[in-house]
Amino acid sequence: SKISARTGSRFALVTALGLALNAGIAWSMEHLGFHYVSIGVVTAVAIPIFNFAGHSLFTYRTHPTRPNR
């Protein structure tokens, strides 16, 4: 995918949402009394999946009727 201002802003948005999700999961699990190792395992699995899906479906998506620019 070509780098553009649009792609850059989408990348920043998905990354910021991933950071917020990470903080939210960690904070919630800590306040529910989970051990810190459990929190680390959950975030280490969930956040990369979120980032991959977000970047695949939003950041670097191509429009079905337009060529990739």
Task: Explain what you see.
This protein is mainly α and 69 residues long. 1% of the residues are buried. The chain contains 2 helices and no strands. It is elongated.
Give me a quick take on this structure.
74% of the residues lie in helices and 0% in strands. It is mainly α and 69 residues long.
Compute the average pLDDT.
90
DSSP E strands, number:
0
Broad shape: elongated
By DSSP (H or I, 4+ residues per run), the number of helices equals: 2
Unreliable residue runs = none
> How much helicity do the residues have?
over 70%
Q: What is the string of helix and strand elements?
A: HH
Labels describing this entry:
69 residues; mainly alpha; 74% helix; elongated
Task: Summarize the helices and strands and which ones pair or pack.
Blueprint: H1 5-31, H2 36-59
